[in-house]
Design brief:
Layout (H helix, E strand, L loop, with lengths): L12 H32 L9 H18 L3 E8 L2 H8 L1 H19 L6 E6 L2 E7 L3 H16 L8 E7 L7 H17 L5 E3 L3
Parallel strand pairs: 4-5
Antiparallel strand pairs: 1-3, 1-4, 2-3
Helix pairs in contact: 3-4, 4-5
């Protein structure tokens, strides 16, 4: 609604046209802001699971490592791989595979609820990560086992995960060190048959 002062002359058609043009400009600006916000969200979020993606994890890990070094706190990374996704896709179709991925992400999110500050991400394909700030290897083990139990009992069927854990220590001091160590531990767990949990040792 638009108003004029009590003593001002009444609105004319020119005033109306100006108000309409102004409203169009404002609507366009709002639309552009919403679009940029949506694009930024897409850049940091996995579209299938709604979880943060690898880009979001990389940025958070750098900050988390710097904070842990500054205050001497713990930092752990759980790297998980959904076992048998190719078999699910081949036997039941890609929709079933997508449901399995969503179930894996949900199991990790639910398991991470007991750890304030935990960040659960989907890296891509069948790989997920949970970054645990302020927590060490024992907490990471508990979380991974809890998530595995939830996934096995979930509605998507008897699914399993292979998990690797790494913690910030004298050998793994950078974000890239932590990521590589957790990835290697997960790969070792996968190589011995899956549904296992390995912890990287310094």
């Amino acid at each position: 609604e638009a108003y004029s002062a009590v003593d001002a002359p009444p609105f004319t058609d020119a005033h109306v046209r100006f108000a309409e043009a102004l409203c169009a400009q404002v609507a366009t600006a709002i639309g552009r802001a919403q679009l940029f916000s949506r694009l930024e969200d897409l850049a940091y979020r996995d579209p299938l699971t709604g979880l943060p993606n690898r880009r979001a994890l990389d940025e958070r890990m750098e900050d988390a490592v710097a904070t842990a070094h500054a205050d001497g706190g713990n930092l752990a990374l759980v790297f998980c791989d959904l076992d048998g996704l190719k078999d699910v896709n081949d036997r039941l179709g890609h929709e079933a595979g997508d449901r399995a991925l969503v179930a894996a992400g949900q199991a990790l999110v639910e398991a991470a609820e007991g750890y304030p500050g935990a960040m659960t991400c989907r890296l891509g394909g069948d790989e997920f990560c949970v970054l645990l700030e302020g927590h060490g290897a024992d907490a990471a083990r508990r979380l991974a086992r809890d998530a595995a139990h939830r996934l096995a009992a979930g509605p998507a069927g008897p699914l399993t995960m292979s998990s690797g854990v790494a913690c910030l220590d004298d050998e793994h001091r950078r974000a890239s060190d932590l990521f590589r160590a957790a990835d290697a531990a997960q790969y070792a767990a996968k190589r011995v048959g899956g549904d296992k949990l390995f912890v990287a040792e310094p």
